[in-house]
Specification:
Largest sheet: 5 strands, mixed
CATH architecture of the largest domain: 3-Layer(aba) Sandwich
Structural class: alpha/beta
Number of strands: 5
Distance between the termini: 89 Å
Number of domains: 2
Order of helices and strands: HHHHEEEHEHE
Shape: rod-shaped
CATH topology of the largest domain: Trna Endonuclease, Chain: A, domain 1
Amino acid sequence: MSLSAEEKSKLIKALEEDQEFRYAVAGMLGYREILDRITSLEERFAKLEERFVKLEEKFAKLEEKFAKLEERQTRLEEEMRDTRRVLTIIAHRFGVISESSFREGMKYVVEEVLGVAKVSKQILRDDEGLVYGHPSDVEVDVVIKDGTHILVEVKSRVSKGDVAELHRIGLLYERIHGVKPKLLIIGGFVDRNSWETANRLGVEIRPVIED
C-alpha cells in the first residue's frame, strides 16, 4: 500500500506537531527493527544447528572408523602373538633354543592364562623321595591368586610323565604347606595320552596355541 503526496504530507505534519504520535511511531519502528534482528538471529541459529548436525554425523563416522581400526589392530596383535608362540615352539622343537629359553619365552603366556604377572619360584625339600624316588630338592613355580595356590609348569612338549610328575609335586607341596594346590601345565605340544592322565590326576593342561 502506497501513500499519496497529501497523505504523506499529513503524516509528516502529524509527526512534527504530535509528540505522542511521534513516540508511538518511533516505538513501532524500533519494535520492527528488533523483530527483524530476532528473525535474522533465528536464521543464523538454524544454519548453525544444521552445521552442528553435519559435524555430529562426521564425528559419528570417524568414531566408527576408529572402532574398526581398533578391532583390526587387536586382531593383528592376536595373530602376531600366536605367530610368536608357534615360532618359539618350533624353535625349541628343532633345537634352536633350549628348554630354559622356551620357558623364559613363555612367561607372558602364564600372565595371560592366570591374569597375574608375578610367579614365584620355590624349592621344596623332598626327604622321602616322593617326587623322584630319592631325597632331592624340587623346584616349582607358584602363583597365589585369590587365596588359591597354583603350581605352574611350562613345557615345550607335555607327556603323561610330566603330568604325573606335577601331580607328585602337588602332593609334596600339600604335605609341606598344608594347602592342596591347583595344578596347571602350559604346553607347546601336548601328547594325546597326556589328557587322560591329566583328567585322572586332576591336572589342568593349557596348550600354548588353542585349537
